[in-house]
Amino acid sequence: MKKQVKVVLLAMVLLCLGGLLFAQGEKAVGVTGAGAAANLEASLKVDTSVLKAADGQPLLRLSSELPKIPTRPANPEALPDTDPLRWFDMEYAGWDTKKTNIPASPKDGAIGKRVVMIVHGDHPWTTACSNGAKKVADAYGMDLKILSPNWDLAVQNQMIDQSINERPDMILIIPLDATTAIQQARRINQSGIPFIFFNTLPTAEAMNYAITWTGPDDFGQMRKLAKVFADEMRRRNPGAKELGIAYVQHAPGGSPYFARSYGPLSELAGYAPEVVTLDMQAPGFEADRTMQLVSDWLTRFGPRLKGIFAADDSAQALGIIEALKKAGRDDIVVVAAGNSKIGMDMVTDGSLFAITYQTAEGDGALAVQTAADWFNGKELPNRRDIPQHIITKADVADFYPPQW
Q1: What residues contact 69, with CB distance under 8 A and at least 6 apart?
Q2: Domain 94-211+360-386: which topology?
Q3: Which one, 80, 201, 234, 318, has least CB within 10 Å?
Q4: Is there a shared CATH topology between the 94-211+360-386 domain and the 219-356 domain?
Q5: d(CA 191, CA 244)
Q6: pLDDT given at position 64
Q7: What architecture does CATH give domain 219-356?
Q8: Domain segments of the chain: what residues?
Q9: Residue 49's Cα: distance from chain center in Å?
Q10: What pLDDT digit, counting tens, does each position of 21-45 carry?
Q11: Contact (CB, 8 A) for 338 and 359
Q12: Which residue intervals of 121-175 are DSSP H helices?
């Protein structure tokens, strides 16, 4: 790391010297070219592969699995919710894009660049995501500014306008709403500022205006979790002709709302047709509200309820497990997205059967690393996905200490 810091400092010195020479009357083109070349050379020497997340896992990991993308149906929205192709435009957004007005990389190095990261809201996950982003930014000596609209779309739009006025070298953004992200993308694109979407997917059209997208393949991961979920319910209920389940959903509007409900629903329709959806509701992220919702389900559905699929392994999971304990129901299989300390502790004690490895630090880190790669002139794919993994009691110990 000491060698890496020296490389960054050297590049900063070269940039300052270039600026002094320009002030003394040197030709702008010559100084810019020399400074850019030196900065690029120093930037390419920065090694971020050695960075670690708080859980001891590598901070930066890319999925080696490219999804097998099916042929897009003529009208996906006309298909039933149980058909995986109904969600084609969300699940595969970004893989096949018609890029519009994308600026070319300056190829002048990542060191010293000014980057604005606009997240979705205040949450322990977001804090961990920001920590991961800062680790990569610090390695490159980037000026990283992080803004949070605290889940308010109007405030996020104001932050986009504010960032455009500040003219940073790059904008990174988590879209709060998948459909309105189109307007956000066009506005940034028309300003000429390069930008990258990350963490949650916008609709396919919005991806046309972004350099790329980085983050978890939420649909793919939820499909894997759904199979583990079904297998465990079958194990506990051998020969059952019906396995009733309910979904505690994510906040409506963003891609996690769709991926964490309709990803598993459409997967289970083919993989485990005996699974029947009894209800789907989005109570928010307060444990008390989730507990009340689950208590109502237990009253309404009684022994028909065999499983609960949750969008969140922290507050929602707490509410679910508390309701089950009060009702004396230890027969219900519960799985959830994410791997907070709360969720991992529940997997350890058996309250939750499985969760997903949703590296928060890695999410933020990958977005900043991808920005750095673009400044460094590297060719980028239309998407960069984080690897998928399902955590159970068998391997949960490998992911301690938790990132958040």
Answers
A1: 92, 95, 96
A2: Rossmann fold (3.40.50)
A3: 80
A4: yes
A5: 50
A6: 80
A7: 3-Layer(aba) Sandwich (3.40)
A8: 2-44, 94-211+360-386, 219-356
A9: 20
A10: 333 333 333 336 788 999 999 999 9
A11: no
A12: 124-140, 153-166
